[in-house]
Amino acid sequence: MTCRSRSTCATCCLAYAMCFMVTLSIIIIVSIMGAIKGPSAVNEMVEDKISTVIDEMMVLEPSSEIFQSWLDPQIPIYQKFYFFDVQNADDVLNSGAKPRYVEKGPYSYRLHVSRYDVEFGDNDTLSYRQLNWLEFAPEVSAGLENDSITTINVPFVGLASGAKHQDWFSRLTVSALAKIHEHEMFTRLTIGEILWGYEDPLLKQLQLMVGEEKVPTYKIGLLLRTNGSRFSTVVNTGASNSTMLNQIVTFNDKTAFKLWPSKEANMINGSDGSMFHPGVTAEESFYVFNPMRCRSVPYTYKESLLHYDIPMMKFHIPWYTYANASSYPPNAGFCLQDSCPDGILNVTSCMDANFGISAPHFLYASPDIIDSFDGIEPNETKHQSYMVVEPVTGVSYTQRRRLQMNLYMESVDGIMQSEGIRSMYYPLTWIEMGVDLPESLATDYKNQMSAVEGYDDMVFYAFIATAIFCFLLFILTAICVILQCCKKRGVRDDSYVTMKKEGSITSKTYTDGIPTDIYVKIPNEDIGNNNVTDEQKYEQKCDIITESTVLSNGHTHKHQTDDESSSGDEHDEVLWKVHISEANGNVISGPETQV
Fold first, then answer.
1. Residue 83 three-state SS
2. Distance between CA 130 and CA 107 in Å, rounded?
3. For 378-396, what is each residue's pLDDT tens digit?
4. Which terminus of the chain, N or C, has fewer Cβ atoms within 10 Å?
5. Confidence (pTM)
6. Is the separation of the CB atoms in 26 and 471 below 8 Å?
7. What is the DSSP string of 93-143?
8. At what angle do helices 201-210 and 154-163 cross, to 10 degrees?
9. Inter-axis angle of helices 154-163 and 168-180, to 10 degrees?
10. What is the mean pLDDT of the chain?
């Protein structure tokens, strides 16, 4: 019979065990690397998906989620007016005393915005017309429109400044008419008159004298021609490039102003501030165009904060926005005269009056300007313009856009009402445009982000679960392969039993390398009354032999054929001839001869 040694099976199992350990080590290393780098890789994948979804959402197209709210905003927008009530007007006019102010306000108005005549053009552009109108909101106001204050007499100051360049007779005429109508450089008016206009008797008489061409109107008001105003704009939809979302292409058919001395200052760039592009970073600056300022102004990063428990970024108008060229050389293009005050921007060329704009209470202006008044108290918290932006979507949750309107008043020869006044900019009013998105929108956003974060975790844990499954599957496969190997190498065949050698067998009959216990395999059907027990089965590590030979005692013994022995396989087994007892099936002699 042929009988493989135990070393062959052991070698097989050892080889598979080594393969198992190597593969297991690789899986462990990959799993550790996956645990370390997996979250970041998953995050990158999820962030790319989020970015794509948000880019599709934040685009000015009829199918996008933001289009309808942009077209007809329902979020409350308030425009608040604070007025400077002059307490010592007579002293200012007669002796050039320092003006003393008391701030009155806010007088709040709900700003309604409607965009219409929307048309989509080439190169991802969209044109529209916009209508703005204000509605008084007494519930958020400090007073009513019939409250009165002492303020600048805008039409008379304008006439006096204009007469400066006229002949002596013209200046005398203006002064005489002003005296007839009891006009001074300051006057008493209601809030409603200041904003919505009133008929000025001096202008009305001058119009009768010189005609409408020189005096086109005699009704004056800060919002007289701006409330209900309409203008046309072309913007980028952001369809192909999300960073260009809502960027102004033209305003009232103009790509630039012709108001300032430099090309850069005349640029109409940035957006209207209603929305910004997705993926905002702290390194960038926003430009917001405002017709009242006659320019675009920058907003730069200030700080990160939590708003409604959402991480956001705060951007503000920097200190140099209204600085003169001495303090900030790039602003040289915004100066219309030889010397410009530091902190006030002269906008005479676009407002048809000698107005200057600044931050409220002359915030960031030079100290000599602030010290020229009593009651002027600049404060960053109250007077700085800023926006709070959610950086992923570019949505602004809070805005405070603030500016102050000042009128230049000067002493003019021949206008006796101005002789005692100090020539400088005097504050008239400061304005705040405020927007606060409701907390319900923030809650919706947080829920959407929570769902995305849940997807992030789900992808990561799915990755871990897949790795564990593959690991267990490998172990199971390895065990099966090892068992199959040992089955092929061993005697695990129920058609045979193992018979233990008994009788007198001397060691001299053994050949070197042959085990001392010789086992032979006898077919079950040929074994009669034998001493083989169940536990003796499968102890033998022998191959099943394929051909039968009848031994001298009539029992069948299977042995290896010549073809099989020459099949190329190398064996360390030996085929032996034995004699079997007919009475009990025990070995009675042998092994005698190697077959």
1. strand
2. 24
3. 999 999 999 999 999 999 9
4. C
5. 0.71
6. no
7. HHH-PPPBEEEEEEEEEEEEEEEEEEEE-STTEEEEEEEEEEEE-GGG-SS
8. 40
9. 160
10. 78
